[in-house]
Design goal:
Largest sheet: 4 strands, mixed
Radius of gyration: 25 Å
CATH architecture of the largest domain: Up-down Bundle
Number of domains: 2
Number of strands: 8
CATH topology of the largest domain: Methane Monooxygenase Hydroxylase, Chain G, domain 1
Structural class: alpha+beta
Number of helices: 11
Shape: flat
Helix content: 55-70%
CATH class of the largest domain: Mainly Alpha
Oligomer: single chain
Strand order of the largest sheet: 5-6-8-7
Distance between the termini: 45 Å
Length: about 350
C-alpha cells in the first residue's frame, strides 16, 4: 500500500500545560482509517525510534472470515493446491473450499497433500462439497534470520546428497524429502513477509526493524527459492543416471561441490551478520563463481552425457549467479546498517 511521500520532518507542538505532541502524516492516517479520538499503540526500540499502529477497536469482529475458494468444480490437477499455497503465502489463516459438484478422491487427496506441505496447516472440516483448512502458526515465533538459516541447512544438505550420489554411484533417497522441506520453509518465509508488510510491529519482532528492508528480504527469499529449484533438479538428474556417471565427471563434481557449499555458507552468514568488512570479503570471494562456471563448461560439457551437461549448467552456472546476488545483498544490508567504514586495499 502506498501512502505517498510526506515530509519526514514534524515540528513538536505544545499540548496543554506540560505535554507535547506531533502530527501524523495525513496519507498514513487516511490509509489506517484514523479519526480524531482514535487510539494508537506504539513500540519503542532501544535506539529510541517508535513504530505506531492503530489500536484494536472494541467492536472489531471476533474472528476473520476464511478466504473462500469457490467454483462449480475443480477438474484440473494442481489448481487447488496452488490456490491453497497462494492463500497461505498471502497470510490467510483459514481457507475454505466450496464446489457445486462434490470433490472427487483425487482432488480431496490434492487438498490433503497441500495441507501437509505447509507448516502449521491442517484440514479441520471436510464435507463432499466443502473443505476447511486452518493455520495454527504464530507468526511472531518465526524470525526471518532463523528461517533463512534453516533454508541454508537444507541447501547444504542438497549439496551433501549430490556428493554422496556421485561418490557411491547410487540413487538418492532424500531428493523428495529435501524438496518438500525446502518448499515448506520458503512458503513460510513468503507468508512472514506478507504479514510483516501489513504489520510493522510484527516486522520488527521477526527481524526487520525497518519496514523498508522487507523488499530486501524478498530478494533474498527469491534467490533461495531459485537455488532450491536448481539443486533439486541437479540432484534428480544425478540420481536418475547415477550408474552412468563417468570417472572424469565424478572427479570434477567432488572437487566443485564442497567449494559451492563453502561459498553458500559464507554468503548466507554474511547476510545474517551485518558486518561490512565481512560482506566485502565474501563479495570479493564471489568472483570465483565465474571461474567455477568456466570450469563447468570445460569439464562437464553436454557432449559428455545429458545428465552431466544439464547438471553443470543448472548447478554451476545458474546457482552461482544466485549466490553472487546474495553476496551483493550482504553488502547492501551492511551498508544500510551504517555502523562502520571499510577502506578496501587497492589491487
Amino acid at each position: 500500500m502506498a501512502w505517498g511521500t510526506p515530509n519526514r520532518e514534524r515540528r513538536v507542538l505544545k499540548a496543554g500545560h506540560s505535554s507535547i505532541a506531533v502530527t501524523l502524516p495525513k496519507p498514513w492516517a487516511e490509509a489506517m482509517h484514523l479519526r480524531p479520538g482514535d487510539l494508537v499503540v506504539f513500540d519503542q526500540n532501544d535506539d529510541g525510534t517508535l513504530f505506531l499502529k492503530p489500536a484494536p477497536t472494541s467492536n472489531a469482529p471476533a474472528g476473520v472470515a476464511p478466504y473462500l475458494v469457490q467454483a462449480p468444480s475443480f477438474d484440473t490437477e494442481g489448481v487447488l493446491e496452488r490456490l491453497i499455497v497462494g492463500a497461505y503465502r498471502a497470510g490467510h489463516d483459514a481457507i475454505e473450499i466450496r464446489t457445486d459438484t462434490a470433490l472427487g478422491p483425487d482432488r480431496v487427496e490434492e487438498v490433503v497433500a497441500a495441507a501437509r506441505g505447509l507448516l502449521g496447516v491442517s484440514v479441520v472440516a471436510q464435507e463432499p462439497n466443502r473443505v476447511l483448512l486452518q493455520n495454527f502458526i504464530d507468526p511472531s515465533k518465526y524470525g526471518l534470520p532463523q528461517l533463512v538459516q534453516r533454508m541454508k541447512m537444507i541447501l547444504v544438505a542438497f549439496l551433501d546428497e549430490m556428493e554422496e550420489v556421485v561418490r557411491r554411484r547410487v540413487r538418492s533417497r532424500r531428493a523428495t524429502t529435501l524438496e518438500e522441506e525446502a518448499k515448506k520453509v520458503l512458503s513460510l518465509l513468503v507468508r512472514q513477509l506478507f504479514l510483516a508488510s501489513r504489520d510493522w510491529s510484527l516486522a520488527r519482532r521477526i527481524g526487520s526493524p525497518d519496514p523498508r528492508q522487507l523488499l530486501e528480504w524478498r530478494v533474498v527469499v527469491h534467490s533461495l527459492e531459485e537455488l532450491g529449484a536448481y539443486y533439486h533438479e541437479a540432484l534428480t538428474l544425478l540420481s536418475d543416471e547415477a550408474d552412468k556417471i563417468g570417472a572424469e565427471t565424478a572427479t570434477g563434481l567432488t572437487e566443485r561441490l564442497p567449494e559451492l557449499q563453502a561459498r553458500l555458507k559464507d554468503v548466507v552468514d554474511a547476510l545474517m551478520h551485518r558486518s561490512l568488512e565481512r560482506a566485502c570479503e565474501v563479495y570479493q570471494a564471489s568472483s570465483g563463481g565465474d571461474r567455477i562456471a568456466l570450469d563447468a563448461k570445460r569439464n562437464f560439457s553436454p557432449t559428455r552425457g545429458p545428465a552431466a551437461g544439464r547438471m553443470a549448467r543448472h548447478l554451476l552456472e545458474r546457482s552461482a549467479l544466485c549466490v553472487d546476488l546474495l553476496a551483493e545483498l550482504a553488502i547492501d544490508r551492511a551498508v544500510a546498517a551504517g555502523s562502520e567504514t571499510v577502506l578496501a586495499a587497492a589491487t
